[in-house]
Amino acid sequence: MRKPVVGVIGNSHRVENRFQVQMVGERNLRAVAEVSGGLPVMFAGSPDITDIAALLDTVDGIILTGARANVHPTRFNVDPCEKHEPYDIHRDEVALALSVACVSRGIPLFGICRGLQEMNVAFGGSLHPEIREIPGRMNHRMPRLENGEIHPDPTVVFADRHDVDLTPGGAFARILGCEKIRVNSLHGQGILEPGKRVLIEGVAEDGTIEAIRIAEAPAFALGVQWHAEYDPQHNPINRKLFEAFGEALVERQKAAA
């Protein structure tokens, strides 16, 4: 049997303020290749380039990665604000439609950070642009130095920062073999109201939604708010998630054979 092909969504960037490119973090690609056992293939987060139906005829699974840009507020009926930029409206268009299409067609879908948020919005949910502004919530953004710059040490940036309580007997509890985990935190935006088919399976100690499952999905359809692509070779939580995604890819291949 061939290696499962996994589509990994790209993000819009401008290099040297001149060249428009699509980019994917290498950690996502390595997690797919080294832990899930798949062949990662980046696709453009742009509806002018990416034909979703053709894409889903080609791949065995989809990864919606994290990204610097927020989901545009108009996608959940909120006015945009400059302080919550940047946005990536083209990725929004692809990712939201793709989330629904994957679930409909039984294609494994794994949403990470922004990917979880996209899945929620795709099924009618809403987001809060700054979770830390809600009373009682912690600052979920990545650690910074006193001068405001992002901390230069990735082991600090991606260090575990808070606990997540998992739903007993839920998909995450079964995959991870426990009901409490500790994860990293690198996001500002987060789920406010869950979508109609979005089941909450993990909640941080401050009440922030950290893990979701799409109800009645015929295949793997899970999202996490933390960056599960970070060091899955050594982080047992992240490794188990990418291994479970890999198992779902093989099941999809067998079903399609």
UniProtKB/TrEMBL annotation:
Keywords: Hydrolase. This is Gamma-glutamyl-gamma-aminobutyrate hydrolase family protein. It holds the Pfam family Peptidase_C26. It comes from Bradyrhizobium diversitatis. It comes from the Bacteria. PANTHER family: GLUTAMINE AMIDOTRANSFERASE PB2B2.05-RELATED. SUPFAM superfamilies: Class I glutamine amidotransferase-like (SSF52317). GO terms for molecular function: hydrolase activity.
